[in-house]
Write a structure and sequence with these properties.
3-stranded antiparallel sheet; single chain; 234 residues; globular; alpha+beta
Length: 234
């Protein structure tokens, strides 16, 4: 698999350099896989300063961490309301978890595993997250569509996802803007596609949720012959 980026139902993946990213927390599960021969590892530092090292590290949503630089890694972002997230909840604790058994995980497997809704989360919450993923409706509209008040929906998200729905909305906007970058739009226009006020706002939010900036990941998002020819998701 060559370097690249793609977004699909319930997931996104990125292969490329990790760079010198800062501490961050995202609204999805992250699986960071070492690339290369047997014995390769990725390394993260958690909010307490503890180092974690393994062929595969799994990070639950909203767990703050910093990924140490590597020339190349494969990372998957798995949205918390899909069936694959149920498997990750069983596997990992509240913090960063080593999962070397997942070293052979491939994009095709993740694509299949994220295509089904969670069987663990409240069905109303799953439906609400789906509504938010398809657009930018007002919260009263989202809550009404699943038969809850906005207050009860927010409380349900905090209890079962461990994060406010506002963070989920930012995550969805980031994936939309990143996909626009991959398709060849300049960062300022990609920011507008994602609903950000400007490019600086997009950059701040991307760094806060992934530890990366548009300029850091742009080489992996664009083919060598320039913008406008997106890589094929593989």
């Amino acid at each position: 698999m060559t370097a690249g980026f793609a977004v699909g139902p319930g997931h996104a993946w990125y292969r490329g350099p990790s760079g010198h990213g800062g501490a961050h927390a995202h609204a999805a599960f992250q699986l960071a896989l070492a690339v290369g021969g047997e014995g390769g590892e990725v390394e993260m530092v958690d909010a307490s300063g503890v180092h974690h090292r393994s062929a595969v590290l799994v990070v639950p949503p909203m767990v703050r961490h910093r990924l140490l630089p590597v020339p190349e890694l494969l990372t998957f972002y798995v949205e918390p309301h899909c069936a694959f997230a149920d498997r990750l909840r069983e596997r990992c604790a509240d913090g960063i978890t080593a999962a070397p058994a997942l070293r052979g995980l491939r994009v095709e497997e993740v694509r299949r595993a994220t295509g089904q809704p969670s069987a663990v989360l409240d069905g109303r919450l799953v439906a609400a997250l789906d509504v938010l993923a398809r657009g930018r409706p007002a919260m009263p509209e989202v809550a009404a569509s699943v038969g809850l008040s906005p207050q009860r929906l927010r409380a349900l998200a905090r209890r079962q996802l461990g994060m406010p729905l506002a963070r989920w909305r930012i995550w969805q906007r980031l994936t939309g803007a990143a996909e626009a970058l991959r398709e060849g739009l300049p960062p300022a226009e990609a920011a507008a596609v994602g609903g950000f006020a400007d490019q600086a706002h997009f950059t701040r939010q991307l760094r806060e949720m992934t530890g990366l900036t548009p300029s850091a990941v742009l080489p992996a998002l664009r083919p060598p012959d320039g913008p406008g020819q997106p890589r094929r998701a593989t």
